[in-house]
Amino acid sequence: MSALKIKKGASSHSAYDLRDPNAEVIGSHTLAVLVDNEAGVLARVIGLFSGRGYNIESLTVAEVDHEGHRSRITVVTTGTAAVVEQIKAQLGRLVPVHDVHDLTVEGPSVERELALFKVAGTGEKRVEALRLADIFRANVVDSTLESFVFEITGTPEKIDAFAELMRPLGLVDVARTGVAALARGA
Amino acid sequence: MSRQMTGARMVVQALKDQGVDVVFGYPGGAVLPIYDEIFQQNDIRHILVRHEQGAVHMAEGYARSTGKPGVVLVTSGPGATNAVTGLTDALMDSIPIVCLTGQVPTFMIGTDGFQEADTVGITRPCTKHNWLVKDTNKLADTIHQAFHVATRGRPGPVLIDIPKDVQFATGTYSAPRETKLGHYQPKVKGDLARITELVALMEKAERPVFYTGGGVINSGPGASQLLRELADATGFPVTSTLMGLGAYPASGKNWIGMLGMHGLYEANLAMHGCDLMINLGARFDDRITGRIADFSPKSKKAHVDIDPSSINKVIHVDIPITGDVGHVLEDLIKVWKSRGRKVNKDGLAKWWSQIEQWKLKRCLSYKNSDKVIKPQYALQRLEELTRGRDRYITTEVGQHQMWAAQYLGFDAPNRWMTSGGLGTMGYGFPASIGVQIAHPDALVICVAGEASWLMNMQEMGTATQFRTPVKQFILNNERLGMVRQWQQLLHGERYSHSWSESLPDFVKLAEAFGWKGIQCSDPKDLDAAIMEMIDYDGPVLFDCLVEKHENCFPMIPSGKPHNEMLLGDASTEGAIQAGGAVLV
Ligand SMILES: Cc1ncc(C[n+]2csc(CCOP(=O)(O)OP(=O)(O)O)c2C)c(N)n1
Ligand SMILES: [Mg+2]
To answer: How deeply is B32 buried, as exposed, middle or buried, from its count of CB atoms within 10 A (0-12, 13-18, 19+)?
Structure first.
């Protein structure tokens, strides 16, 4: 799983600005896209986003049903409600796409991201990093005398907050998976 | 009834089983095994084109005039890349095409092999779907699926990339009915509750209009029939996009002409002023809407489309109905009848008298001449002399295309093929060959501009070889006329590279390929020359020398609302501000 950051200036560069400037606010939406796990399917989805000028904040993909050859793509995107509706419809008409759900509007959902943080330092800073990691329930998955690798899961906001705290304490490297999300309840 | 055979043979077998009778193609190293199989059979006719772009446009002409998918076979690398424009054209205009491409053998993929190109990568955004087949056992299934995807839902082009080793290898063939088609089953029935809502609005509407598009044609002749029934029973006016011409007959009493950038005054004002807009299989293209903010401000809008992503994409509608136009019309008519066939008679009478008022503008009138042939006059004569015949019209792209749409009348669907969404110069001539292959005895005319026509003129050899008596009616203004018009109106009359320089002698060119060439420059000779073209039993290149500086009106400049239409040269002074020049 890898996180992908693709930012594109949406349709504001288009000669036809289709968005009503007074329209509702631009929000972040988490879309769950269930697809046939066939060659090129991720390229199709990403190509749709870049080709039509939609944003990708984060994207994760992995096979979730080996027998059924299904993968689940979780895309976090931003746009007005109308743009997100359009993104859903465009995704929905890709042939290998089975289902598209906007987890942000379809009811409560849980979102989790996993991240690895490498923090290097000695003395006070090293102790402080370990103390904060404990508060954030981050695990130490590797350590040397001068460094730790922490593993943390949580909402993207929690991971952002942890990153902010680690920065002054010797943050060297970060790897984030991007968001995985599921609707709550049965 | 599974059988063992090579991949190459499977291709031919699968095409036969799909009812394919003709393939437009061009051979090369990566498709030689398939060509070897084509050589050894007689069921499928192969039309050898002169350029792969021509093959796709021919297949488009074939598809649009028959309602069946068009099939293309080309080699890897340059063969595939040459097909890209045609595939994009078919995607924009929703034309079912199955394109088979050869590919380097699987073990060479990724090595920059000779004539290797990432065909599925290149064509991913310009096909409805595509496949790279790496296993001969999956080849037949994939081809059957490809036909399914190309023709179901909103039709479009699909591509199957077949490495050469997959063509040589032996595998198990499965027939179409043994193939699992997967989950791709677009919904064709519209939601009855929505349809009933629409009927309720139709019963009350004072100023309704049917805004019809290519979706009606794609839905099949039944949809056109139902549209006629509904329009005639309700008395609602009907306008259409460029793509939908012929779905409702031009001779029908409710026809108010084409709408859009070069549409009729009455059609555009009806769109602007209506209180109920019923969009049947059109997509609110920017050539139709003009400035979005001012688009038909007072109407309730319903939109019937088989592609949910077309609904609410550009224009927000009040009644979205996802479904096939034919199915929805059938239900709509049932519901409307069952509720007592009500319409707002008084409202409609007033609405029609308003429309009649608009018609008095005679927006298609032009200043004729007895010295030079006006392009409009040429098309009026062509219409007069060919109406009632078994006639198919294709066009190239430019002013002539718009004039053809304005001055020719279509009374049946599938008789008009033009490149609408992509606006591909070079479409019309090969498309006319594709139409003629499907309808050998019909009168097939391509209305062309001299510049567009040259873009795929190599297909003259194809027409000669396959004895397609296509008529190329070139309105030769020695200009990239549409470009020149925009430069005149939007770029201070700076005519940058909009001359057609160094044109060939079209009559000699015709003769060089064994065609008949006709040149006509005097309006007095025009009728006889057109008759000579029609009566000639073979392909004709008609070089019709027309007025060089005629502009195409009406015109709604980009970014203007419908009610700010330019009706003639006099109205263009200062009408277009700099802002409009940004738009295409
Ligand atoms: C492949 C392609 N290149 C460029 C254009 C832009 N274009 C639109 S109309 C036009 C001029 C067409 O000239 P001609 O075929 O002579 O038709 P006319 O407008 O003179 O009737 C051009 C260059 C296009 N539509 N397609
Ligand atoms: Mg011209």
So the answer is: middle
CA dihedral B51, B52, B55, B60 (to 10 degrees): -130
Q: Name the nearest CA neighbour of B563 among B237, B274, B294.
A: B294
Q: Provide the Cα torsion B485, B488, B494, B497; round to 10°.
A: 0
- The ipTM estimated for the assembled molecules is 0.91
Length of chain A as a residue count? 186
Rounded Cα distance between B332 and A110, Å, is 43
DSSP string, B535-558: H-SS-EEEEEEB-SS----SB--T
DSSP B252: S
User: What is the C-alpha separation between A69 and A23, in angstroms, rounded?
Assistant: 40
Q: CA A127, A129, A131: angle at the middle one, nearest 5? A: 70
Query: A97 and A91 in contact (C-beta within 8 Å)?
Result: yes
Distances (CA, A) of A51 to A48, B200, B530: 5, 40, 46
Q: What is the reported pTM?
A: 0.94
Instruction: For the beta carbon of residue B578, count every other beta carbon within 10 angstroms.
Output: 7
Q: If residue B8 lies in a helix (H) or strand (E), which one and from where to where? A: helix B7-17
- pLDDT of B298-353, one tens digit each? 999 999 999 999 999 999 999 999 999 999 999 999 999 999 999 999 999 999 99
Q: Do the beta carbons of residue B217 and residue B395 sit within 8 Å?
A: no
Find, in chain A, the residue whose alpha carbon is nearest to that of B579.
A15
The amino acid that residue B482 corresponds to is M
A82 with B153: Cβ contact below 8 A:
no
Token pair in block for residue B95: 């034309």
Distances (CA, A) of B280 to B239, B321, B414: 10, 10, 17
Cα B521 to Cα B335, B446, B546, distances in angstroms = 56, 19, 7
Write the DSSP symbol of residue B176: G
Q: How does residue A82 score in pLDDT terms, banded at 50, 70 and 90?
A: very high
pLDDT in tens, B537-559: 999 999 999 999 999 999 998 88
Q: For residue B473, what are the CA distances in angstroms to B247, B351, B526, B532?
A: 24, 39, 12, 12
Provide the 8-state DSSP code for B579. Answer: G
CB atoms within 10 A of CB B113: 16
Tell me the one-letter amino acid at B141. Answer: D
Q: For a pocket test of ligand 1, which of B373, B395, B401, B425 has the largest count of ligand atoms closer than 8 A to its C-beta?
A: B425
Residue B52 near residue B44 (C-beta atoms within 8 A): no
B 91-150 → A contacts, CB under 8 A: 120-121, 124-125, 128-130, 132, 149
Q: Do B237 and B351 touch, CB atoms closer than 8 A?
A: yes
